[in-house]
Specification:
218 residues, 10 helices
């Protein structure tokens, strides 16, 4: 049951971010933040015990709690939303890269994900990101979430595998998941690129035009 729930959440959040990420910035980042927060909260509980991912009521409660907090924070202010978005995107891309390179699902993968997430968050804080960069990163991270959801539905992995090396091994034996990922990334870029006028805006400008608040004006 939990595999189906996580699969649905991953596909829904991933599809929205992949195909509408920058175009509907004001709505998409809070949704992505909620999903990232849920996965983080549940993952923290799974990492402190032997019950597995989302195998206890506590992991569900913590996941939902983190998701609501992350979603709310991402909705309030541009600076908070962009840092949360870039940090979660960086983590998703960093862990996906390590898995693709064949690393075992271990703290190495987690640490690389955190490092990439912190790096992108720092870049987001230091500068006003052009729209096309968020579009590209959103398409990549969204596609990764979609593929994860599809793998859960197909039974290629289950949520228990998220804390083991099984994901790496099964991806090695199933090259078509990489092909699906690439198709989704290209499709997401093409769909969002149709909104050229929006993509010429910076992320801060697009956020402000959608009625979002900022901690400071530039």
């Amino acid at each position: 049951m939990q595999d189906m729930v996580v699969g649905i959440l991953a596909i829904a959040a991933g599809a929205l971010f992949c195909f509408r990420g920058f175009i509907a910035l004001r709505v998409m980042i809070p949704i992505w933040g909620t999903f990232a927060g849920f996965m983080l909260g549940a993952g923290l509980i799974a990492g402190t015990g032997d019950a597995g991912f989302l195998r206890t009521g506590l992991s569900w409660m913590v996941g939902v709690g983190f998701g609501l907090v992350f979603g709310l924070l991402a909705y309030l202010y541009y600076e908070v939303s962009i840092v949360l978005a870039m940090a979660s995107i960086g983590f998703a891309l960093g862990t996906s890269l390590m898995v693709a390179l064949g690393a075992s699902w271990s703290w190495l993968i987690i640490l690389v994900g955190i490092a990439v997430g912190v790096l992108l968050a720092m870049v987001a804080i230091a500068g006003d990101l052009p729209g096309f960069i968020l579009m590209l990163l959103g398409a990549m991270a969204g596609s990764s979430a979609i593929v994860t959801g599809l793998m859960l539905f197909a039974g290629a992995v289950n949520t228990e595998d998220f804390t083991s090396k099984a994901v790496t091994q099964r991806l090695k034996d199933s090259w078509w998941w990489y092909a699906i990922y690439l198709v989704l990334v290209v499709s997401g870029i093409i769909v969002q690129s149709r909104e050229l006028d929006r993509l010429r805006l910076s992320t801060r400008t697009a956020w402000a035009e959608a009625g979002g608040k900022e901690l400071r004006k530039v």
